[in-house]
Amino acid sequence: MKKIRIAIQKSGRLNEDSLKILKECGISIDNGKDQLKASSRNFPLEVFYLRNGDIPQYLKDGVIDCAIIGENLLVEKGQGIESVEKLGFSKCRVSLAVPKTTEYSGIEDLNGKKIASSYPETVRQFLEKNEIKADIHKISGSVEIAPNIGLADAIVDIVSSGSTLFKNNLKEVEVLLKSEAVLAVSPSIDEERAALLKQLQFRLQSVLTARQNKYVLMNVPEESLKEVIALLPGMRSPTVLPLAESGWHSVHTVISEKAFWEVIDQLKTAGAEGILVCPIEKMLA
Ligand SMILES: Nc1ncnc2c1ncn2[C@@H]1O[C@H](COP(=O)(O)OP(=O)(O)OP(=O)(O)O)[C@@H](O)[C@H]1O
Ligand SMILES: O=P(O)(O)OC[C@H]1O[C@H](OP(=O)(O)OP(=O)(O)O)[C@H](O)[C@@H]1O
Ligand SMILES: [Mg+2]
């Protein structure tokens, strides 16, 4: 039986969360230190530990079937590679920044300027779309230093908290794209492995949905029951069980975390007490 070959980043921003999500999918990986390839004991899967930046080419060549990579790389190097699942971690944006002291009134200001970036293709597409003629200077790291040493007038790089820009006296003026970790698939995946990919996706979806939802339990007096149930944006409808003390009920439901914080005060006002919020491990459609 064939195994599906998945690439994850060897070390860096994506490594830990990629291994974590596979583990939550119930996939155990025999992971020796400094190993570049490992197999799963309980799922027909082989893991290849590679540089994030090299992964799109491996996918195109068909030597791996799928990978967890930053979505931004698909714009840079991923023509023909499909992203089949957003994974919700490593959220960032690719932005253009200029020195704080530069007066910036709009994209036209970039005409004739020099832009340093590790993502030249992303910059090229952005300039072409906006009909700007500027020089692109490719550097592979420490991009934020470029304007300070006179190498460029602007930079395009990844921004998350913005603290690297801040420390280098730069300001973010354009967001080129937003990114998060995704499951990307080789255009030449075969049928047998595509079926395994579907199984993997099903597991990933159940983990991702579970992460976004909470199991909520609360005690509700008889007179508040109708009002509380009306407030709950549940899946189908909540479970209502009697408490040992008469006139009281235990109400159980699943709520998306965001929605929960919106209704919590209303639930308390309506008479709900002893509200417990528990994580869900898996949620199957
Ligand atoms: N500061 C950040 N916050 C959130 N996500 C980030 C941040 N920096 C990068 N990322 C995301 O994580 C991915 C991997 O970034 P990282 O810097 O670890 O690797 P890389 O520079 O692409 O390197 P390599 O090719 O060496 O593996 C990026 O493509 C991007 O999608
Ligand atoms: O907005 P912030 O939260 O400051 O994050 C942005 C920084 O994070 C990334 O670098 P990373 O730390 O991955 O180092 P690298 O350049 O060695 O990849 C990116 O290249 C920025 O420099
Ligand atoms: Mg980086």
From TrEMBL:
A GO CC term assigned to this protein in UniProt: cytoplasm
Task: Name the chemical reaction catalysed here.
Answer: 1-(5-phospho-beta-D-ribosyl)-ATP + diphosphate = 5-phospho-alpha-D-ribose 1-diphosphate + ATP
For this protein, the activity regulation entry reads: Feedback inhibited by histidine.
Q: What class of enzyme is it?
A: transferase
Q: In which pathway does it act?
A: Amino-acid biosynthesis; L-histidine biosynthesis; L-histidine from 5-phospho-alpha-D-ribose 1-diphosphate: step 1/9
EC no. given is 2.4.2.17
Q: Record keywords: Coiled coil included?
A: no
Q: Which SUPFAM superfamilies match?
A: GlnB-like, Periplasmic binding protein-like II
Co-factor(s): Mg(2+)
Sequence ranges assigned to domain Histidine biosynthesis HisG C-terminal in this UniProt record: 210-282
Q: Identify the Gene3D superfamilies for this entry.
A: 3.30.70.120, Periplasmic binding protein-like II (3.40.190.10)
User: What GO terms describe the biological role, i.e. biological process, of this protein?
Assistant: L-histidine biosynthetic process
A single Pfam family it belongs to is HisG_C
Main subcellular localisation: cytoplasm
Name its cellular compartments: Cytoplasm
PROSITE patterns on file: ATP_P_PHORIBOSYLTR
Q: Where is the ATP phosphoribosyltransferase catalytic domain?
A: 51-205
Q: Which UniProt keywords apply?
A: Amino-acid biosynthesis, ATP-binding, Cytoplasm, Glycosyltransferase, Histidine biosynthesis, Magnesium, Metal-binding, Nucleotide-binding, Transferase
Its Gene Ontology molecular function terms?
A: ATP binding; ATP phosphoribosyltransferase activity; magnesium ion binding
| UniProt function note | Catalyzes the condensation of ATP and 5-phosphoribose 1-diphosphate to form N'-(5'-phosphoribosyl)-ATP (PR-ATP). Has a crucial role in the pathway because the rate of histidine biosynthesis seems to be controlled primarily by regulation of HisG enzymatic activity.
Return the similarity comment. Answer: Belongs to the ATP phosphoribosyltransferase family. Long subfamily.
Q: What is this protein called?
A: ATP phosphoribosyltransferase
**Lineage of origin:** Bacteria, Pseudomonadati, Bacteroidota, Flavobacteriia, Flavobacteriales
Q: Quick one: which gene encodes this?
A: hisG
